[in-house]
Specification:
By secondary structure, this protein is mostly helical. The chain is built from 4 helices and no strands. It is elongated and about 40 Å long.
Amino acid sequence: KKRQKHSNQFDHYVSTFSVWESKFLNGDDTRLAKQPPRRLEILRGCFEGAKNESVVAALKIVYMDFAALRLGGDLIFKLMSKLVR
């Protein structure tokens, strides 16, 4: 049950990055222009990673199996959420 919860959460993150990327690429990035360049680089990396099936599969295993890394993934998602919303 917990594993399914973590799996669903990870899938949500990946699909959300795809939605954000389409907004970003369609010019809806006025807020992003004011963000620190390093955070934008992280966001771009998330976009690229979310499109790579091998990366997604590997990160999903790590996210589901290791609590400390899951916490890190949650933190990255939270930080990126602040950038795009």
